[in-house]
């Protein structure tokens, strides 16, 4: 299938479950660097005469666009439901900033899907605007023959789960369905979040709450939404209180936002866990996006 944008380069394409798993690259104006993203076209996209729902999948710390497409097995379910799936990268790439590769939970591969406010990060680390405006608009334009702009959902894992929740709550109506695997639910109250927010946003905690799902849900006034949260009970990051799903559930209940928390006995934080339940998440999104 041809796209309508010259700023897009196809990096790879592999047939899987009757559809095409592709990777594209493009020059990002928000991030000021070249970025990859993955795109799965289910078999129903062939011919380009029907508009299909879309799900964005946001990966976690240390990931690129590759982890989800090679490890989760999502393509079987996307093909069954006829859903296009987009997977952005997790941070700007090829931009050298002092300290950007010193730790695995900050800098490269750890963009936290927010717009940094503090120098030197604020010039490039604008993953919030990149995801929710630049890439979102690019997909609508480049794949306008197959993408249904009114049926777009989002999901993610860990840092990407935080990104999915925050993107939905900050942009009411843009994503019609949302789910997350082991999300960082309350970053202002966990070590990963405190480190990232201090680094990217600075010391002003008023800025922090604007990127924290547990805080944002308390003020949510958009269209009705049900949050699906999945959590492995044996996940070391859950046990170490990096994820704090109970805080999000409590905040949702305090304001009457429906939330489902599935605690999965014995499962950890890995893609073994994600691949075990990815089908259930596709069922959840399909029910909303195809209603
Ligand atoms: N290096 C870390 C472990 C890193 C890790 O578990 N990353 C997760 C996301 S964690 C939250 O955002 C991940 O998805 N990894 C990629 C994969 O393919 O599994 C450590 O030392 O513990």
Automatic annotation (TrEMBL):
- Enzyme Commission code: 3.1.2.12
One GO term describing the cellular component: cytosol
GO molecular function, one example? Answer: carboxylic ester hydrolase activity
Q: Where in the cell is it found?
A: Cytoplasm
GO BP, one annotated term: formaldehyde catabolic process
So where's the catalytic machinery, residue-wise?
158 (charge relay system), 235 (charge relay system), 269 (charge relay system)
Primary location class: cytoplasm
Task: Kindly give the InterPro entries that the UniProt entry links to this protein.
Answer: AB_hydrolase_fold (IPR029058), Esterase-like (IPR000801), S-formylglutathione_hydrol (IPR014186)
Query: Which keywords appear in this protein's UniProt record, sorted alphabetically?
Result: Cytoplasm, Hydrolase, Serine esterase
Q: Catalytic activity annotated for this protein?
A: S-formylglutathione + H2O = formate + glutathione + H(+)
Q: Which family does it belong to?
A: Belongs to the esterase D family.
In terms of PANTHER family, this protein maps to: S-FORMYLGLUTATHIONE HYDROLASE (PTHR10061)
Q: What does this protein do?
A: Serine hydrolase involved in the detoxification of formaldehyde.
The protein in question is named S-formylglutathione hydrolase
List the source organism.
Answer: Manduca sexta (Tobacco hawkmoth)
